[in-house]
Amino acid sequence: MVLVMFDSCVSRVWQFNAVWSQKALCLHAQNPIPAWQGHHLCEKPLFHAIIDPGVVTNEEQETKNRMQPSKLQPPTTWRTMALPKDGGQKHESNFAIWDNHMNASARSPLAKPFVKWAGGKSQILDKIRAKYPAGLGNGINKYAEPFVGGGAVLFDVLNLYPLDKVYISDINRELVHAYITIRENVGGLVRALTDFQQEYLSAGAEKRKSIYYEKRERFNALKLAQDCSLELAALFIFLNKTCFNGLYRVNAKGGYNVPQGKYHNPCVCDEENLRMVSSKLQKVTIVHGDYKSSQAFIDDKTFAYFDPPYRPLSVTASFTSYAQDGFDDTAQSELAGFIDEMSERGAFVLASNSDPKNTDETDDFFDRLYAKHDISRIDALRAINSVGNGRGRIRELLIASG
User: Fold this and answer.
1) Helix-strand-coil percent breakdown of the chain, rounded to 5?
2) Most exposed: 183, 233, 285, 331, by fewest CB within 10 Å?
3) Exposed/middle/buried for residue 305 (C-beta within 10 Å: 0-12, 13-18, 19+)
4) Measured torsion, CA atoms of residues 300, 45, 106, 8, in degrees rounded to the nearest 10
C-alpha cells in the first residue's frame, strides 16, 4: 500500500510504502526526510506511526514483524499528527494523510491559499484540523466559513473531505471578487498576472517601485468605482504578492495604502495553484457580506468555522485591520451570540480569536463570552505587526461547540 502525506508548511507531498497492523503503521519514505515518531488522532482507536527514511530500530522491526496487512483494513480518516523533533523537543506540523483506496480527488494536487493574509491559519492548521468534527464528509456534509480571508482552512477542508455544499463569505469586497474571478475566469486571470509578473521582475529596483505605486493607484481608482473587472482581481493579487508582508490595509477613505515590499523574486502568478483553486471553488457559494449572511445556510449538517478580526492585544495590533469599520467588543459579543444560536441549531461550530491573557492574565473576556463552549489555548507565531519587536509566539484561542 502507498500513502500520500502532504506537508502544508512547505507545500510538499511525500509518498510512503506502508503496512498496517492493529496497533501500528510503519511508513517508509520514498523521499529522504528526518526520522520522526508521533501519534495520529483519528476516528478509530489511537494508532502509532513511525516515519522512517531507512534506519529501523530493533523495536520498530519487531513491530513490523507482527504485522498482517492482508487481514486488516486501515481507517479512512486521519486528522492530524503530532511529531517530536530530533532531540525530543515537541513539534507540531501540518500533515494530512490519505490511503490509496480513497477516491481519486484526494490524491490530486492540493489547493492552497492564493494570497498571503494577515492572521492566516496555515501555520496552525494542524491544531485546527484536530478540532474538525468526526463526521465531517459523512453525516456532516456542509461547510461554512463566513470570514474566509486567505482560506487556509477552507482549502484544507476541500482537499480532505467530500462535501455536498460549501459557503464562504467576507466583508472585503475585493477579496471576494478575486475568489469569484478565479472560479469563473481563471484563464484570463492567469494571463493578466503573467503579464504583471514579467513586467515587474524584468525591472530594476526604482522601476519596480514606480510600477507598484502606479498599480496601487489604478487599483484604488477601480475600487472606488466599485469595478468588477478581471483587472481589479489581477491588481488585487499583484499587490498582495508585492506589498509589505501581504498586508491588506485601508485608510479612512477606503484606499489601499500598504507600501511596497522588498522581495527579490515574488511569485505573482502561481498558475498551477490558481487552476487548482478554481477547480475546488466550482461548487462553492461565494458571498460578499458579513457573517450573518450565513444564517440561512447553516444547519445541523454543517461544520462552520469563524475566524473574525481578532480582538487587539495592544494599540498597535490593530495595524492589520483590513476593513474601515472596526470589530470591537460589542461586535465580538454579537458574534458570540450568533455562534451560540448556530450551535443550538445543531451545527458544529469552531472559532478562532486572540487570547487576552497574553497581555493581561485577569482578562477573561472570551472565557466569559464562550462559557458554554470548549476553549483551547494554542501557540501561534504571528509575524505581521507594525513594530518588529511585536513578532513572536503568542497564545490563541480555539473555541469549539460545547
Assistant:
1) 35, 25, 40
2) 285
3) buried
4) 100
H helix intervals, 204-270? 205-224, 230-242
Q: Where are the alpha helices (DSSP H) in 225-281?
A: 230-242, 271-281
Among 125, 135, 55, which Cα is nearest to 92's? 125
Q: Which helix (H) or strand (E) holds 57?
A: none
pTM score, whole prediction: 0.73
DSSP β-bridge partners for residue 286: 168
Q: Can you give the length of the chain in residues?
A: 402
> Are residues 5 and 97 in contact, defined by beta-carbon separation less than 8 angstroms?
yes
The DSSP symbol for 77 reads -
Give the tens place of pLDDT for each residue, 305-357: 999 999 998 645 444 444 445 789 999 999 999 999 999 999 999 999 999 99
Q: List Cβ neighbours of 307 (8 Å cut-off, separation of 6 or more).
A: 119, 121, 145, 147, 149, 153, 351, 352
Task: Name the helix (H) or strand (E) containing 176.
Answer: helix 173-201
* CA-based nearest residue to 230, from 284, 283, 178: 178
Type of residue numbered 260: Q
Predicted local confidence at residue 266, as pLDDT: 97
pLDDT in tens, 82-106: 333 344 433 333 333 333 333 434 4
Asked if residues 72 and 20 have their Cβ atoms less than 8 Å apart, the reply is: yes
pLDDT digits (tens, 9 = 90+) for 121-147: 998 999 999 999 999 999 999 999 999
Q: Are 156 and 131 in contact (CB under 8 A)?
A: no
Q: Is 62 exposed, middle or buried (0-12, 13-18, 19+ CB in 10 A)?
A: exposed
pLDDT of residue 144: 98
- H or E, element range at 96: strand 95-99
CA distance 275 to 109: 10
Class of the CATH-defined domain 122-171+289-400: alpha beta
Domain limits, CATH 3.40.50.150, in the chain: 122-171+289-400
Looking at the chain, the domain(s) classified CATH 1.10.1020.10 span 175-279
Among 3.60.21.10, 1.10.1020.10, 3.40.630.30, 3.40.50.300, what is the CATH number of 175-279? 1.10.1020.10
pLDDT-derived band at 118 (thresholds 50, 70, 90) equals confident
Mean pLDDT across 163-173: 97
Q: 57 — phi, psi (to 5°)? A: -75, 165
